[in-house]
Design brief:
Three copies of one chain form a homotrimer. By secondary structure, chain A is α/β, with parallel strands linked by helices. Helices cover 17% and strands 28% of the residues of chain A. Chain A has five helices and 39 strands.
């Protein structure tokens, strides 16, 4: 099942040299967990002691440490070299090829070359699927959806009508794109629903995590720009615009019509209110709650979010607040006594 | 693909008058994004400057602004008129009609008139589906479930056994109703599971967002009353009772056996502990954490939740708490000095 | 449809005695909601007044209260006895038996004895399914997955390749195991993806809630130890290790490489940062945010999490912080006045 390579082949792939025995490498692992035929790496000096005890068959490490092990690949950047090896050993997910006869494909849909369509996929009317796409089982593609080239939709992903994906998008299982935005208002004659007639536009090279939901716009579009990475269980509301190369970690929620700039990092469980503007290169710490616009390069944390250094000082002092109340009460008594003494002296 | 109407037809539909050229309207958009044949609207005076630069073919606006544009529909309430137009332009989701021969329907299930059942739907034994229901692909309806009339279950929604839906319910993709409640206890002989033998009852006109989960009750039922709107990725625990016309925004979690009254608004990422009673017309701000009962008309925020005005003052002061510690330290020194001087005078 | 037993049969099953009429019991319910033929219970003295008004046909209660009702089962531990009755009345979910001809099963997959495979299930190459497993519709089992005996995967659960489940695991609908971990880094030449080549290993007797996601490891494995119970919409990141008998309540997020010990309880919406070590028997309160290691038997709450008693005192004082600022301002004025008076006396 698994791939294997000789140490020489891996060194050659990396464009680096190796030393010791040209063993056959059957997998990759950490120094602590690697066994006989596995390749490991030493990047962080913190783990240098593990070099003496590791059972790894070979290690990728810096020239400075070359003498410490017998079988090794020598690299100026062991972490980066190892990450490249992970790509070498990674297996493409899935086991099916071709277009299943058990998929339900509308006659008006068009499907590019070299696509894989698993059983029990549904593709709606006028949908367009680019070349080299893979649709796993349980995927639903609504009418008028358009997918670029080389997209992978893992099992049970749902694209409601008119959703667009660029090239090279990868959706983990259970992603829902284009569900209706939360458009309800209370009126004198009861709850009214505002129909959501916009779409979702996902640009090239976007990755979206399992069971994440991105709603269609009320008007116009909800959009995610290229190279942005979204983790699991994230909620993105209607008409949100997310910029390029953002990292949106799991369980983040972004409310309607908010704009997030390029290269922003939103840590886990962050919430951002609606109609805000988050500029480029902003970092928001875990569980942060953002209720105001944030300027370029802001680093914030807390709920409501504040500047990071202030947050850190606040965090350290927070457990001391009960004591602060006592200190203030003590001061009040001391002052009262001093004032009393003063008054009695008059 | 898209619908189109003349300006006169739209004015007629709205019961309003129009001015200018009777253009053909091909879509709706904001003033900022609208193009030649699109209709837009001006409701908020904040956007009045955009009237001069919009490329919209026509605008719905108040009589006071009628002179500012050529092609227009004149309405006393432009936002409401525009929302009605959104309904006019909205297209019904989906592309399939009839009962698919690739659905798996138990012989004992009954299906009403004019229903649509997509391929790869499963309907269990003794299930009852009302008239005019639409079940998209990947939907699972467990045994003894009952659906009222005119319900729409979009792709991959799951109703476990005995779940009831009223009329006109709309479930976004991936909703799970009737999963087992979290009924586990630690005992001297290990973790024990309390079987969850209750059900989920959803009343009329309830909308539920994508990937939201509502658990079956331990006993009796978990219930959502009529006209309540639930957003994406919400968790509702076993035996929770939610009242009428509530708005439950995305990523809210409500723990077991809590009762929520009518017309409550729970903002994004709110958490409510179990066995609480939230009265009618309560509003809870985003990321709020509720650990006590809340009286009618309460407006709260924060974690743990406090009265809204207190929360707002607290929020503004929170970043100044580190400074407050310094101020108290300074006071302590000043007082110590005053006391020392007093003592030396004695 | 529903099961029924006589009061004598139930008493016999429990190994307890009954009094009154040997009625036929058609279901179980709370004292408040039970009707004529239903059995209820009195465990918490708080509900003793309901004994007088309940319409339950019979009640399980402590010998001390035996005189208060006519039809009863007498038990030293009424709650435990009632929980056992819930197991007696619980019906096995589902209505289908055998291997559906509408499932798509790879020829190289092996399926144990007495398994149930619903329509529209997909089982990948080299997958191994143990005896007595049930796979509901829409389930996807990737290549090289292995399931122990007696596992139940309810509708639309997804196991990506190489995921392992032990015996007696129960997955609520929409669970995703083995999606790719969030492995992205920003580099000088753009966002790079670190391939995730590890797996997910779930031990025996683990229950996982609806739409919960557990990511595959970057290297090695993400693991959940035996007897652990996970609620709905939980996120567990790559390389996380969760111990035995943990309770992980809904919407919790655990970031990558964190280790959680045995018998820990993580309340709803808790977030734990990556690379931390949470020792055995730790309890984390709702919405808690953990950013540091936690020692054995810790009980913490708040964000960032602090010791529970400190948190409780802090919570009570939090709404009084605005007033504290006023008190400190008043003190500063008083002190200034005292100092001024002192200076004028010199």
């Amino acid at each position: 099942m698994a791939k294997q390579f000789t140490l020489a082949e891996i060194a050659d792939f990396l464009g680096e040299r190796y030393q010791g025995e040209n063993i056959t490498v059957t997998g990759l692992n950490t120094l602590e967990e690697a066994q006989g035929s596995e390749l490991s790496f030493l990047a962080n000096p913190k783990y240098i002691k593990q070099i003496a005890t590791t059972k790894a068959g070979a290690v990728i490490l810096h020239p400075d440490h070359a003498k410490d092990v017998k079988n090794a690949i020598i690299s100026e950047n062991p972490y980066f070299s190892f990450a490249r090896c992970m790509g070498l050993f990674a297996e493409k997910e899935g086991f099916f090829e071709g277009i299943s006869e058990f998929a339900s494909i509308h006659p008006s849909a068009t499907i590019g070359e070299n696509c894989t369509v698993y059983p029990f996929v549904v593709i709606g009317s006028n949908a367009k699927i680019g070349d080299n796409c893979t649709l796993f089982s349980g995927v639903y593609i609504g009418e008028y959806c358009e997918l670029g080239e080389n997209c992978t939709l893992t099992p049970n992903c749902v694209l409601m009508s008119h959703t667009h994906l660029g090239d090279n998008c990868y959706l983990q299982p259970g992603v829902v794109l284009g569900g209706e935005g939360f458009g309800f208002v209370r009126t004198d004659f009861g709850v009214q629903k505002i129909p959501q007639i916009g779409t979702v536009m996902i640009a090239d090279n976007v990755e979206i995590g399992a069971n994440t939901t991105i709603d269609r716009a009320a008007l116009s579009k909800t959009s995610i720009a290229k190279n942005t990475c979204i983790d699991n269980l994230v909620q993105i509301g209607h008409n949100v615009q997310v910029g390029e190369e953002c990292f949106i970690v799991s369980q983040v929620g972004i409310a309607g019509s908010t704009k997030v700039g390029n290269k922003c990092t939103l840590a886990g469980q962050v919430g951002i209110s609606g109609h805000l503007h988050i500029a480029d290169n902003v970092t928001i710490g875990p569980q942060g709650g953002v209720i105001k616009d944030l300027a370029e390069n802001s680093v914030v944390s807390g709920s409501p979010a504040m500047e990071y250094n202030t947050y850190m000082r606040h965090s350290l002092l927070q457990p001391k607040i009960p004591e602060l109340f006592k200190r203030v009460s003590a001061l009040e008594k001391q002052i009262a006594k001093l004032e009393q003494e003063r008054d009695s002296q008059k």
